[in-house]
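Hey, can you fold this one?
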Amino acid sequence: MINNSFLEKIAQILIQDYSDTLSDTIVVLPNKRAKIFLIAALKKQVSANILSPEIISIEDFIQDIAAIRTVDPIELLFEFYEVYLSVTEKSNQQSFELFANWAKMLLQDFNEIDRYLLDPNYVLSYLKDIEDIKKWGIEVENKTQLLENYIDFWKLLPNYYQSLYAHLLKKGIGYQGLIYRQAVDNLIPYSKTITDKKYVFAGFNALNASEEKIIQHLIASDQAKIYWDADQTFLNDPYHDAGLFLRRFKANWKHYKSNPFEWIANDFAEAKNIQVIGTPKTIGQAKITGTIIEKIISDNPGTSLDKVAVVLGEENVLVPLLYSLPSTVGALNITMGYSSKNNPAQILIAKLFKMHTNALSRNEKSYVFYYKDVLDILAHPLVEPYAKTSGLVNTINQNNYTFITHQKVLDLHQEPTELFSLLFTKWNNGSMAVLQMVSNLLLTIKNNLSNDNEEEKITKAFVFAIFKVINKLINYYSQHEHIDKIDTLYAIYKQVIDLAEVSFEGEPLNGLQIMGVLESRVLDFDTVIVTSMNEGKFPAGKSQNSFIPYDVKRELGLPTFKEKDAIYTYHFYHLLQRAKNIYLLYNTESDGLDAGEKSRFITQLEVEKQPNHNLSHEIYNAVLPETAYKPMVIEKSDSVMDRLKEIATVGFSPSALTSYIRNPIQFYFQKILRIREVEEVEENIALNTLGTIIHETLKVLYEPFIGKFISEAAIENCFKLIDAEVLKQFKVVYKEGEIKKGRNLLAFEVAKRNVSNFLKVELESIKAGDAIKIIALEQTFQRTLTHPSLPFPVLIKGNVDRIEERNGTIRIIDYKTGKVEKASVTLKTWKGLTEEIKNDKIIQVLAYAFMYENEVNGKPIEAGIISFKNLKSGFLPFNFKEEKDSEFIINDAIMNNYLEQIVLLLQEILDQNIPFEEKVV
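Sure. Predicted structure:
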């Protein structure tokens, strides 16, 4: 029987010793999954048809004895709350949310107390005494109400336990521990009804007190036999955790005083290749697993992978692993369920809860939605194609709706689909109405999905998983109507959704086996690949999720983290026990998400290395590319050249020229391809929007003075108009955006302050004797540039903020809402003017001067900038500085030098042989 799998050995025993009574034999295994593998092992042992023994899991077996239905955790919580309300004074009763925080932990403790057959009154009174001792030194008069309530809570624990136990028994339902306790109580009468049955217990490791009692009773009455899967390496080492429980049973069970302990194998010490591989992050482990499997297939073409197991220490490795598997894998069996947590249907329901709970918490009457919540739902892939809301989305984006009332949403979307109506029904009629609405919503989504499309079929499976959860909640709520807060419903939904899984379809006995740690119990494989071998993942690490202190658990014989670690240790070593090739993968990153130290199991294998084990350790790192990023290069095709000619005819703006200098690719996207930025809601006013508002306000205030000289009285009158005009421009530019509070109110005040400060500077100039005549405001000018070096004439066209005549000099002004210093408009050499983006202001203002030059009738021209963040410097004119001399007036020499540089830039833009090359800053 050497090197047979454990289940093959069990199959041999069944055929040898139980062949006459096989149909009356019941095989009890640790889990349901092993049943299929045991039947397959039995098939190999027989050539004719036989009646199979009944094969059940330990939990089903215990449930049969107790004759009580098991209850799921959420239903149990609801039932416990009913009991809690019935035994707690009304003044001390907590809401369901507060109750659930401590009740889940208390139920776990009740479960442990029952599974280990302890006296609940003794244990729970013990806890109360511990708390009393902790508060021993507090004088009676110093005991606050809070402290009294705290002590009362511990006093009530035995009452909670007894009441809940009686309540559940009455209903014929129970949690695991209650079922175990009832099974032990019912054991004697039950064993009398099964005198003709024979039980075989196989592959167990850790048993609780109830299981021990039941199994020992059946063995003692000669109705059962138990076969362990022990290995002498662990069993004979008094400190090895993998043998912790088996050593205890071997030493303590009465049966083993006179009978042999079956079976003790010696498989672990056999020859094994163990490869320990470290790599950064989860994805790296998935990729390496894929590579290992690819190598197995290439080394053994034509062989089945059913003896290869991938055991995932963490569920989140599953999806990257499936993408990393080679296409040659063929058959595949995944025993883990795929969590419903992050699938599209669940994300939609979570976003729906968020939108409506936020609206309810703001104001239940006016029911105001936040635009991001609304857009999140409308843009969802299960909604967008079917709800026909693209018009509504555009309206929200274009009008800057930040907060939208429920009524406004309905007004903006006049012809709602059924899907839209379900999404935006108010949630103010209680939890049952919400659940019914969500249930109808999921049915509507299901009807929208097609069976012909493979992806939509998968989505349907997820929608159905959520639908089942919602129906389960409807069932709970119909029985417990007093728990009726939407926040509570959302909290419960989040807990239930963790339990909702979608199963993979596969052939369990064929192909590569992918499973979690617990699914690997009792099974044996030739090649085992284990991922996430890090502390905190494998083993899972300490978690003190109990009201019972560690020392009390030790005294009472309840399992502590040491026992939980020992269970993990057994599972791990059992995986390795009969395997020949073992790959252990771990994350080398010791900090950050999904990280931790290398698992102690790896260190243990290295320290306690068996003579026949060939153990190697490798670190894999991703290959870093030589260049992190290759700048984009786009050749100029004939169609690009046609577009450039079109731009040259319509007009190159100064900003188009500076965008080319900043980054040719940006120019290509914006001007050649005409790609615009996506319209989005501006929640806070952007700087360019603020600039537009200031520009437009000044234009309106100064428009009456075009062609006239400005007087002091005229400017003083403008001061009175500022508030109303800025508000008006805000409404025009920012539409429905909120400007009465928050950062937008500050921006509104900044805009008023900027306009006011500008007018103050203007007033001081007039008082100082300046004669200012407005010639043009926000006006478009153009002029054709022809030059022998250019392939065709180029129109330069742009919008000038303001042109004025000041004391006989023409002044061309560009407003800037940002900060501009004098240095930005000072030039020392013409060479390389168009090569650096720092000269963008100079290129811009001189372009305006070039466009207006023919209109000046011989008057001197200045061109420059007024910076609203640097108003104290006033007008910043372009100046050409040679040594110590500065030239502010734009003469022919300056204009000719400038045009020479612009022609060089245009030559580059219009040359078909020079591609657009991205500038990487």
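The mean pLDDT is 88. Let me know if you want another pass with a different chain boundary.
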